[in-house]
Protein backbone atom coordinates (compact mmCIF):
# COMPACT_ATOMS: atom_id res chain seq x y z
CA UNK A 1 0.00 0.00 0.00
CA UNK A 2 2.88 2.40 0.65
CA UNK A 3 4.56 2.10 -2.71
CA UNK A 4 2.86 5.11 -4.24
CA UNK A 5 3.99 7.34 -1.37
CA UNK A 6 7.47 5.92 -0.83
CA UNK A 7 9.02 8.32 -3.36
CA UNK A 8 8.98 11.06 -0.70
CA UNK A 9 10.58 10.74 2.74
CA UNK A 10 7.83 13.02 4.06
CA UNK A 11 5.47 10.02 4.16
CA UNK A 12 7.09 7.73 6.66
CA UNK A 13 5.58 4.64 8.24
CA UNK A 14 5.95 4.40 11.97
CA UNK A 15 5.87 1.23 13.97
CA UNK A 16 6.91 -2.28 12.94
CA UNK A 17 4.31 -2.78 10.22
CA UNK A 18 4.94 -2.48 6.50
CA UNK A 19 1.95 -0.22 5.88
CA UNK A 20 -0.44 -3.02 4.81
CA UNK A 21 -3.46 -3.95 6.84
CA UNK A 22 -5.06 -2.51 9.99
CA UNK A 23 -4.70 -3.07 13.70
CA UNK A 24 -7.29 -4.89 15.83
CA UNK A 25 -9.46 -1.76 15.95
CA UNK A 26 -9.45 -1.29 12.18
CA UNK A 27 -6.93 1.53 12.26
CA UNK A 28 -4.24 1.83 9.59
CA UNK A 29 -0.61 1.76 10.66
CA UNK A 30 0.07 4.88 8.61
CA UNK A 31 0.77 8.11 10.44
CA UNK A 32 -2.19 10.49 10.07
CA UNK A 33 -1.98 13.36 7.58
CA UNK A 34 -3.60 16.77 8.05
CA UNK A 35 -3.98 18.95 4.95
CA UNK A 36 -4.11 22.72 5.57
CA UNK A 37 -5.11 25.06 2.77
CA UNK A 38 -3.77 28.48 1.76
CA UNK A 39 -5.48 31.79 1.05
CA UNK A 40 -8.67 31.32 -0.95
CA UNK A 41 -8.35 27.57 -0.55
CA UNK A 42 -11.36 26.88 1.69
CA UNK A 43 -15.04 26.81 0.87
CA UNK A 44 -16.90 29.52 2.79
CA UNK A 45 -20.61 29.36 3.65
CA UNK A 46 -22.88 32.21 4.68
CA UNK A 47 -25.30 31.14 7.42
CA UNK A 48 -28.49 33.09 8.02
CA UNK A 49 -28.61 33.80 11.76
CA UNK A 50 -32.40 33.61 12.01
CA UNK A 51 -33.31 30.78 9.67
CA UNK A 52 -30.11 28.77 9.89
CA UNK A 53 -29.80 27.86 6.20
CA UNK A 54 -26.39 28.08 4.57
CA UNK A 55 -25.28 29.30 1.12
CA UNK A 56 -21.89 28.74 -0.45
CA UNK A 57 -20.36 32.15 -1.16
CA UNK A 58 -16.78 31.08 -1.91
CA UNK A 59 -16.24 29.66 -4.43
CA UNK A 60 -19.24 29.80 -6.74
CA UNK A 61 -19.70 30.43 -10.45
CA UNK A 62 -23.36 31.52 -10.65
CA UNK A 63 -23.99 35.04 -9.23
CA UNK A 64 -20.43 35.00 -7.86
CA UNK A 65 -19.78 38.75 -7.78
CA UNK A 66 -23.21 39.64 -6.38
CA UNK A 67 -23.10 37.10 -3.55
CA UNK A 68 -19.50 38.01 -2.77
CA UNK A 69 -20.40 41.68 -2.24
CA UNK A 70 -23.50 40.89 -0.23
CA UNK A 71 -22.11 38.21 2.08
CA UNK A 72 -18.30 38.49 2.20
CA UNK A 73 -17.56 42.20 2.19
CA UNK A 74 -16.32 42.99 5.67
CA UNK A 75 -14.98 45.63 8.01
CA UNK A 76 -12.25 45.08 10.56
CA UNK A 77 -13.39 45.56 14.15
CA UNK A 78 -10.46 46.96 16.20
CA UNK A 79 -12.59 46.85 19.36
CA UNK A 80 -12.34 43.06 19.49
CA UNK A 81 -8.52 43.31 19.73
CA UNK A 82 -8.41 39.78 18.29
CA UNK A 83 -7.78 40.36 14.61
CA UNK A 84 -11.30 39.77 13.32
CA UNK A 85 -12.95 41.29 10.28
CA UNK A 86 -16.76 41.16 10.41
CA UNK A 87 -19.15 40.79 7.50
CA UNK A 88 -21.28 43.82 6.61
CA UNK A 89 -24.39 41.65 6.48
CA UNK A 90 -25.72 41.72 10.06
CA UNK A 91 -28.11 38.84 9.34
CA UNK A 92 -25.44 36.29 8.46
CA UNK A 93 -22.16 34.79 9.61
CA UNK A 94 -19.36 33.14 7.65
CA UNK A 95 -18.61 29.48 8.35
CA UNK A 96 -16.20 26.88 7.00
CA UNK A 97 -17.94 23.50 6.49
CA UNK A 98 -16.28 20.64 8.36
CA UNK A 99 -17.93 17.82 6.39
CA UNK A 100 -15.93 14.73 5.47
CA UNK A 101 -13.51 15.27 8.37
CA UNK A 102 -12.59 18.71 7.08
CA UNK A 103 -11.70 17.50 3.59
CA UNK A 104 -14.85 18.73 1.82
CA UNK A 105 -13.92 22.40 2.28
CA UNK A 106 -10.48 22.02 0.67
CA UNK A 107 -11.17 19.43 -2.02
CA UNK A 108 -13.16 20.91 -4.95
CA UNK A 109 -13.87 24.53 -4.06
CA UNK A 110 -17.00 24.67 -6.21
CA UNK A 111 -18.47 21.18 -5.86
CA UNK A 112 -21.52 21.95 -8.02
CA UNK A 113 -22.64 19.44 -10.63
CA UNK A 114 -21.73 21.82 -13.46
CA UNK A 115 -18.17 22.28 -12.20
CA UNK A 116 -17.67 18.56 -11.79
CA UNK A 117 -19.06 17.80 -15.23
CA UNK A 118 -16.80 20.39 -16.85
CA UNK A 119 -13.96 19.48 -14.47
CA UNK A 120 -12.85 23.09 -14.13
CA UNK A 121 -9.29 22.56 -12.93
CA UNK A 122 -9.14 26.06 -11.44
CA UNK A 123 -11.32 24.98 -8.50
CA UNK A 124 -9.77 21.56 -7.90
CA UNK A 125 -7.68 22.36 -4.83
CA UNK A 126 -6.44 19.39 -2.74
CA UNK A 127 -8.54 16.97 -4.81
CA UNK A 128 -5.72 15.11 -6.55
CA UNK A 129 -3.60 14.93 -3.39
CA UNK A 130 -6.55 13.56 -1.42
CA UNK A 131 -7.14 10.86 -4.05
CA UNK A 132 -3.44 9.99 -4.11
CA UNK A 133 -3.35 9.56 -0.34
CA UNK A 134 -6.50 7.42 -0.41
CA UNK A 135 -4.86 5.19 -3.01
CA UNK A 136 -1.84 4.92 -0.72
CA UNK A 137 -4.02 3.46 2.03
CA UNK A 138 -4.93 6.54 4.06
CA UNK A 139 -8.48 6.58 5.40
CA UNK A 140 -10.71 9.58 5.90
CA UNK A 141 -11.41 10.18 9.57
CA UNK A 142 -8.67 7.81 10.70
CA UNK A 143 -5.44 8.81 8.96
CA UNK A 144 -6.58 11.59 6.64
CA UNK A 145 -8.06 14.95 7.70
CA UNK A 146 -8.43 18.48 6.35
CA UNK A 147 -8.42 21.90 7.93
CA UNK A 148 -10.03 24.83 6.16
CA UNK A 149 -10.42 28.27 7.71
CA UNK A 150 -11.77 31.74 7.04
CA UNK A 151 -8.83 33.08 5.05
CA UNK A 152 -9.96 36.72 5.43
CA UNK A 153 -8.99 36.63 9.07
CA UNK A 154 -5.64 36.91 10.79
CA UNK A 155 -3.48 33.79 10.86
CA UNK A 156 -3.37 33.94 14.66
CA UNK A 157 -7.00 34.55 15.68
CA UNK A 158 -8.24 32.47 18.62
CA UNK A 159 -10.85 30.65 16.52
CA UNK A 160 -8.30 29.42 13.97
CA UNK A 161 -5.80 28.40 16.66
CA UNK A 162 -8.41 26.51 18.66
CA UNK A 163 -9.77 24.84 15.52
CA UNK A 164 -6.31 23.60 14.57
CA UNK A 165 -5.68 22.30 18.09
CA UNK A 166 -8.90 20.31 18.02
CA UNK A 167 -8.15 18.94 14.55
CA UNK A 168 -4.65 17.79 15.59
CA UNK A 169 -6.01 16.19 18.73
CA UNK A 170 -8.77 14.45 16.75
CA UNK A 171 -6.30 13.02 14.21
CA UNK A 172 -3.97 11.89 16.97
CA UNK A 173 -6.71 10.02 18.85
CA UNK A 174 -8.43 8.58 15.76
CA UNK A 175 -5.18 7.02 14.54
CA UNK A 176 -4.48 5.34 17.86
CA UNK A 177 -2.07 7.88 19.32
CA UNK A 178 0.12 8.42 16.27
CA UNK A 179 1.64 11.84 15.78
CA UNK A 180 0.37 13.86 12.82
CA UNK A 181 2.13 14.78 9.57
CA UNK A 182 0.99 18.25 8.52
CA UNK A 183 0.95 19.29 4.85
CA UNK A 184 0.34 23.02 4.54
CA UNK A 185 0.06 25.09 1.39
CA UNK A 186 0.93 28.77 0.89
CA UNK A 187 -0.53 30.97 3.65
CA UNK A 188 -1.44 27.83 5.56
CA UNK A 189 2.25 27.70 6.47
CA UNK A 190 1.92 31.06 8.24
CA UNK A 191 -1.08 29.76 10.19
CA UNK A 192 0.93 26.70 11.25
CA UNK A 193 3.88 28.93 12.19
CA UNK A 194 1.64 31.06 14.39
CA UNK A 195 0.21 27.97 16.05
CA UNK A 196 3.70 26.57 16.60
CA UNK A 197 4.83 29.83 18.20
CA UNK A 198 1.76 30.35 20.38
CA UNK A 199 1.12 26.71 21.31
CA UNK A 200 4.53 25.10 21.11
CA UNK A 201 3.72 22.46 23.72
CA UNK A 202 0.61 21.30 21.83
CA UNK A 203 2.54 21.27 18.55
CA UNK A 204 5.26 19.12 20.14
CA UNK A 205 2.69 16.70 21.55
CA UNK A 206 0.77 16.05 18.35
CA UNK A 207 3.04 16.78 15.36
CA UNK A 208 5.59 14.41 13.84
CA UNK A 209 6.45 16.09 10.52
CA UNK A 210 5.54 19.35 8.86
CA UNK A 211 5.65 19.44 5.05
CA UNK A 212 5.39 23.07 4.02
CA UNK A 213 4.60 23.91 0.38
CA UNK A 214 5.16 27.39 -1.10
CA UNK A 215 4.87 29.36 2.12
CA UNK A 216 5.44 33.15 1.93
CA UNK A 217 7.53 33.19 5.11
CA UNK A 218 8.81 36.70 4.38
CA UNK A 219 5.79 37.85 2.39
CA UNK A 220 4.68 37.94 -1.24
CA UNK A 221 5.51 41.58 -2.02
CA UNK A 222 4.54 41.82 -5.68
CA UNK A 223 1.17 40.11 -5.34
CA UNK A 224 0.25 41.71 -2.01
CA UNK A 225 1.25 45.26 -2.95
CA UNK A 226 -0.71 44.98 -6.17
CA UNK A 227 -3.70 43.48 -4.33
CA UNK A 228 -3.86 46.27 -1.75
CA UNK A 229 -3.76 48.97 -4.43
CA UNK A 230 -5.75 47.48 -7.31
CA UNK A 231 -7.26 44.18 -6.18
CA UNK A 232 -6.85 40.68 -7.53
CA UNK A 233 -8.28 39.05 -10.65
CA UNK A 234 -8.39 35.25 -10.28
CA UNK A 235 -9.83 34.54 -13.72
CA UNK A 236 -8.92 36.50 -16.86
CA UNK A 237 -10.67 36.95 -20.19
CA UNK A 238 -14.31 36.02 -20.77
CA UNK A 239 -14.35 33.85 -17.67
CA UNK A 240 -13.88 36.90 -15.45
CA UNK A 241 -17.52 37.86 -16.07
CA UNK A 242 -18.61 34.66 -14.31
CA UNK A 243 -16.42 35.19 -11.29
CA UNK A 244 -15.56 37.82 -8.68
CA UNK A 245 -14.36 41.02 -10.33
CA UNK A 246 -11.06 42.70 -9.51
CA UNK A 247 -12.62 45.76 -7.87
CA UNK A 248 -14.99 43.63 -5.78
CA UNK A 249 -12.10 41.52 -4.51
CA UNK A 250 -10.08 44.69 -3.84
CA UNK A 251 -12.60 45.95 -1.28
CA UNK A 252 -12.43 42.69 0.66
CA UNK A 253 -8.64 42.51 0.68
CA UNK A 254 -8.24 46.00 2.16
CA UNK A 255 -10.16 44.79 5.23
CA UNK A 256 -8.50 41.34 5.48
CA UNK A 257 -5.84 40.99 8.20
CA UNK A 258 -4.34 37.97 6.42
CA UNK A 259 -3.34 40.18 3.46
CA UNK A 260 -1.48 42.64 5.70
CA UNK A 261 0.31 39.70 7.33
CA UNK A 262 1.75 38.74 3.94
CA UNK A 263 3.25 42.15 3.20
CA UNK A 264 7.02 42.13 2.69
CA UNK A 265 8.89 41.66 5.96
CA UNK A 266 10.89 44.90 6.41
CA UNK A 267 13.27 43.15 8.83
CA UNK A 268 14.26 40.46 6.33
CA UNK A 269 17.57 40.91 4.52
CA UNK A 270 16.29 40.80 0.94
CA UNK A 271 18.86 40.55 -1.81
CA UNK A 272 17.12 43.61 -3.15
CA UNK A 273 14.32 45.40 -1.31
CA UNK A 274 10.93 44.99 -3.03
CA UNK A 275 9.58 48.30 -4.29
CA UNK A 276 6.47 50.01 -5.52
CA UNK A 277 7.38 52.36 -8.34
CA UNK A 278 5.19 55.23 -9.50
CA UNK A 279 5.82 57.34 -12.58
CA UNK A 280 4.26 60.58 -11.35
CA UNK A 281 3.62 63.96 -12.88
CA UNK A 282 4.70 66.86 -10.70
CA UNK A 283 3.57 70.41 -11.40
CA UNK A 284 5.96 73.31 -10.82
CA UNK A 285 3.19 75.75 -11.70
CA UNK A 286 -0.06 75.67 -13.69
CA UNK A 287 1.77 75.39 -17.01
CA UNK A 288 4.99 73.56 -16.19
CA UNK A 289 5.30 69.94 -15.10
CA UNK A 290 7.84 67.15 -15.03
CA UNK A 291 7.70 63.38 -14.71
CA UNK A 292 9.64 61.64 -11.93
CA UNK A 293 9.95 58.01 -10.84
CA UNK A 294 9.09 57.64 -7.17
CA UNK A 295 10.09 54.46 -5.33
CA UNK A 296 8.68 53.09 -2.10
CA UNK A 297 10.25 50.27 -0.07
CA UNK A 298 8.38 48.06 2.46
CA UNK A 299 8.34 50.81 5.09
CA UNK A 300 7.85 53.81 2.78
CA UNK A 301 4.97 52.10 0.98
CA UNK A 302 2.68 52.63 3.99
CA UNK A 303 2.37 56.34 3.22
CA UNK A 304 1.62 55.44 -0.41
CA UNK A 305 -1.18 53.06 0.61
CA UNK A 306 -2.61 55.72 2.90
CA UNK A 307 -2.66 58.41 0.20
CA UNK A 308 -3.89 56.15 -2.60
CA UNK A 309 -6.79 54.69 -0.58
CA UNK A 310 -7.84 57.74 1.44
CA UNK A 311 -11.01 58.29 -0.62
CA UNK A 312 -11.82 54.65 -1.28
CA UNK A 313 -15.40 53.68 -0.43
CA UNK A 314 -18.07 51.13 -1.25
CA UNK A 315 -21.83 51.39 -1.63
CA UNK A 316 -23.45 48.69 0.48
CA UNK A 317 -27.19 48.35 0.93
CA UNK A 318 -27.74 51.99 0.01
CA UNK A 319 -25.08 53.47 2.28
CA UNK A 320 -21.57 54.62 1.50
CA UNK A 321 -18.84 53.07 3.64
CA UNK A 322 -15.26 54.36 3.75
CA UNK A 323 -12.62 51.68 3.11
CA UNK A 324 -9.22 53.37 3.46
CA UNK A 325 -5.91 51.70 4.21
CA UNK A 326 -6.48 50.21 7.66
CA UNK A 327 -3.85 51.18 10.22
CA UNK A 328 -5.52 49.10 12.94
CA UNK A 329 -5.03 46.00 10.81
CA UNK A 330 -1.44 47.05 10.08
CA UNK A 331 -0.75 47.30 13.81
CA UNK A 332 -2.20 43.84 14.37
CA UNK A 333 -0.24 42.43 11.42
CA UNK A 334 2.98 43.93 12.83
CA UNK A 335 2.35 41.89 15.98
CA UNK A 336 1.80 38.80 13.87
CA UNK A 337 5.09 39.43 12.06
CA UNK A 338 6.94 39.48 15.39
CA UNK A 339 5.35 36.16 16.31
CA UNK A 340 6.40 34.68 12.96
CA UNK A 341 9.93 36.04 13.32
CA UNK A 342 10.27 34.37 16.71
CA UNK A 343 8.67 31.01 15.85
CA UNK A 344 10.88 28.03 16.71
CA UNK A 345 10.62 24.47 15.41
CA UNK A 346 10.39 22.08 18.38
CA UNK A 347 13.08 19.46 18.83
CA UNK A 348 11.94 16.15 17.37
CA UNK A 349 9.67 17.61 14.67
CA UNK A 350 10.92 17.12 11.10
CA UNK A 351 10.44 20.03 8.72
CA UNK A 352 10.35 19.78 4.92
CA UNK A 353 10.26 23.04 3.00
CA UNK A 354 9.05 22.65 -0.60
CA UNK A 355 9.13 25.69 -2.83
CA UNK A 356 8.79 26.45 -6.52
CA UNK A 357 11.46 27.85 -8.81
CA UNK A 358 11.90 28.82 -12.47
CA UNK A 359 8.61 30.72 -12.68
CA UNK A 360 8.43 34.46 -13.24
CA UNK A 361 7.14 35.73 -9.88
CA UNK A 362 5.95 39.32 -9.27
CA UNK A 363 8.28 41.33 -7.05
CA UNK A 364 8.36 45.06 -7.84
CA UNK A 365 5.13 46.81 -8.83
CA UNK A 366 5.14 49.76 -11.24
CA UNK A 367 2.29 52.17 -11.93
CA UNK A 368 2.21 54.52 -14.90
CA UNK A 369 5.06 55.16 -17.32
CA UNK A 370 7.28 58.01 -18.36
CA UNK A 371 4.94 58.81 -21.23
CA UNK A 372 1.73 58.13 -19.30
CA UNK A 373 2.37 59.19 -15.69
CA UNK A 374 0.06 59.14 -12.67
CA UNK A 375 -1.37 62.55 -11.82
CA UNK A 376 -2.85 61.74 -8.43
CA UNK A 377 -2.06 58.77 -6.20
CA UNK A 378 -5.76 57.96 -5.88
CA UNK A 379 -5.59 57.03 -9.58
CA UNK A 380 -3.49 53.98 -8.65
CA UNK A 381 -6.63 52.13 -7.57
CA UNK A 382 -7.90 52.29 -11.15
CA UNK A 383 -4.60 51.51 -12.88
CA UNK A 384 -3.37 48.04 -13.83
CA UNK A 385 0.26 47.75 -12.73
CA UNK A 386 3.28 46.31 -14.47
CA UNK A 387 5.56 43.94 -12.60
CA UNK A 388 9.21 43.08 -12.50
CA UNK A 389 9.87 39.43 -11.77
CA UNK A 390 12.15 37.21 -9.74
CA UNK A 391 12.55 33.45 -9.41
CA UNK A 392 9.69 31.70 -7.62
CA UNK A 393 6.41 29.87 -8.18
CA UNK A 394 4.40 32.69 -9.82
CA UNK A 395 3.20 34.09 -6.48
CA UNK A 396 5.81 33.52 -3.75
CA UNK A 397 9.44 34.47 -4.48
CA UNK A 398 11.81 31.58 -3.79
CA UNK A 399 13.78 33.95 -1.58
CA UNK A 400 10.74 34.39 0.66
CA UNK A 401 9.78 30.71 0.71
CA UNK A 402 13.34 29.80 1.73
CA UNK A 403 13.51 32.60 4.30
CA UNK A 404 12.44 30.66 7.37
CA UNK A 405 15.75 31.28 9.12
CA UNK A 406 14.38 30.39 12.56
CA UNK A 407 14.12 26.72 11.51
CA UNK A 408 17.78 25.67 11.51
CA UNK A 409 17.16 21.96 10.99
CA UNK A 410 15.20 21.49 7.79
CA UNK A 411 15.15 19.74 4.44
CA UNK A 412 14.58 22.02 1.45
CA UNK A 413 13.20 20.74 -1.84
CA UNK A 414 13.19 23.03 -4.86
CA UNK A 415 10.66 22.02 -7.51
CA UNK A 416 11.68 23.14 -11.00
CA UNK A 417 9.26 24.12 -13.73
CA UNK A 418 9.39 21.64 -16.60
CA UNK A 419 7.35 21.86 -19.76
CA UNK A 420 6.09 18.47 -20.87
CA UNK A 421 3.00 16.82 -22.28
CA UNK A 422 1.50 16.51 -18.80
CA UNK A 423 2.05 20.12 -17.83
CA UNK A 424 4.52 21.39 -15.28
CA UNK A 425 5.54 19.33 -12.29
CA UNK A 426 4.82 22.30 -10.06
CA UNK A 427 2.05 24.80 -10.69
CA UNK A 428 2.79 27.60 -8.27
CA UNK A 429 0.92 28.77 -5.19
CA UNK A 430 -2.03 30.44 -6.86
CA UNK A 431 -5.06 29.42 -4.78
CA UNK A 432 -6.39 27.25 -7.62
CA UNK A 433 -3.22 25.82 -9.13
CA UNK A 434 -2.47 22.36 -7.77
Question: What does this 3D model show about the protein?
Answer:
The chain is an alpha/beta fold. 25% of the residues lie in helices and 22% in strands. The chain contains twelve helices and 17 strands. The protein has helices at residues 64-72, 113-118, 127-135, 158-174, 188-198, 200-206, 221-230, 246-254, 257-260, 301-308, 327-342, 398-401; strands at 33-36, 44-48, 54-58, 74-76, 85-87, 92-95, 144-147, 180-185, 207-213, 276-283, 289-296, 313-316, 319-322, 350-357, 359-367, 386-392, 411-416. The protein has a six-stranded parallel β-sheet with strand order 7-1-8-9-14-17, sandwiched between helices. A four-stranded mixed β-sheet has the order 11-10-15-16. α5 (188-198) packs across α6, α5 (188-198) crosses α11 and α7 packs across α8 (246-254). The longest helix has 17 residues, at 158-174. The protein is globular and about 85 Å long.
Amino acid sequence: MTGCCSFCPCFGISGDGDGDGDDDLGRSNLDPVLLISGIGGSILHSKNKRRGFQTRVWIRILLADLEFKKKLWSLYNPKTERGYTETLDDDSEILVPDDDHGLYAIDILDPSVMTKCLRLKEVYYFHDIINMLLQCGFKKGTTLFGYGYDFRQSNRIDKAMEGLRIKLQTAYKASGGRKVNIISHSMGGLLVSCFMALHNDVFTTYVNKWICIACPFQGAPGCINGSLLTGLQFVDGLGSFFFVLRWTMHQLLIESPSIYEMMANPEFEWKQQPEIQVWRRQFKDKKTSSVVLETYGPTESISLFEEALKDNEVNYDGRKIAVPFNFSILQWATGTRQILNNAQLPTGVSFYNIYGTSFDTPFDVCYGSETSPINDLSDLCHTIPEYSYVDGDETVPAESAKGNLVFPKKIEIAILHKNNSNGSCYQGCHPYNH
